[in-house]
Amino acid sequence: MKRCVILVAAVLLFAPTSRAQQADISALAPRLQALVDQWRTTNNVPGVSVAIVHKDGRVQSLTSGVADRQSGRALAPSDLLMTGSTGKTFFAAVALQLIEAGRLDLNAPISKYLSGKPWFARLPNANDITVRMLMTHTSGLVRYEMNPKFTADLRAAPDKAWTPDEEIAYLLDSPAPFAAGKGWDYSDTNYIVLGVIMEGITKTRLYDEVQKRFLTPLQIAEVAPTTSRRIPGLVSGYAGPRDPLGLPDEVMVNGTFVINPQFEWTGGGYATSARALARWGHALYTAKAVSTKMRDLMIAEAVPARLGPETKYGLGVIVRDTTPAGRSWGHSGFFPGYQTELAHFPDLGITVAAQINSSATRGPLRLIYDLVAAIR
Fold this sequence. Notes:
Blueprint: E1 3-9, H1 19-43, E2 47-53, E3 58-65, E4 81-82, H2 88-100, H3 111-114, H4 131-136, H5 148-156, H6 164-168, H7 188-202, H8 206-218, E5 223-225, E6 252-253, E7 256-257, E8 270-272, H9 274-285, H10 292-300, E9 303-304, E10 311-313, E11 318-320, E12 328-335, E13 338-345, E14 350-356, H11 365-375
Antiparallel strand pairs: 1-3, 2-3, 2-14, 4-8, 5-8, 6-7, 9-10, 10-11, 11-12, 12-13, 13-14
């Protein structure tokens, strides 16, 4: 069995750890590693990467399995995996800072920012959607990325770099499933439209905004924008036989994606290591990345969501009021070949990120609950 347990001290954000605390965390390692190994074996997943930011600030990494089935190379804590929709947390944080600065109005109709776009009037619910509705998935804009014509076009042009306008075009002149603000439907399209608005405000690439506002000041490395078919440090992913985008089981061939993941943009748009993602989530949900006021707003805006019992969706955050490990704030992520879960448990002060290089099985949320139960 190929596995790894690493304890590292966070270089920023956290208070020093006492020797007693270090000993307690180290003593937990065998039990936590056993849980990770067991979950991977039970779910027949090639590799699992987990990172835990403990209440005292220690970052604990655990890996199990392989980065690549062909080579059999063991998965390492520094390896990158696609985050899928968990990447929305970076872009939502930019939006929160723009809201606090008075540059983005949560209550404004999106016509305030987009009325000059030639496609705007053809957008479903165009005149009734607000920025808040985009961020909470209550706009009525459906998922362009699951449109059969888009998935066929994506596979047919694997090198194509998609523009937001081209992606939004798959929705134009189509009926909305509900009136704006009168329903809930998870859709990357919401965050693509939000991305267009924010780049119009900042006049810069949002990837550059994330780097400048968060990754550089927080000193978080092992984070890569997924802007091309080759992403340095990304491990192989396996989609299984029934991928919703119609991709083959092996989504990378000789280090090159079978399609261009660039299309995801503000719907996700990143590959990270688990330890980088856990540090990011801890900074975000403990109000180190955004102000306490904006962190609280992010949670307070949560609306009922079809993501499980007692689950809501806020401003780029999944809010679970009751879980086996207590209430949590975080996000889930799917990209063909990969799944990610990020969860912060505010009552415990613990943040956990779990990533797997398979999208053919259930995600690792249950693993996170088991790990937190063992830590409590």
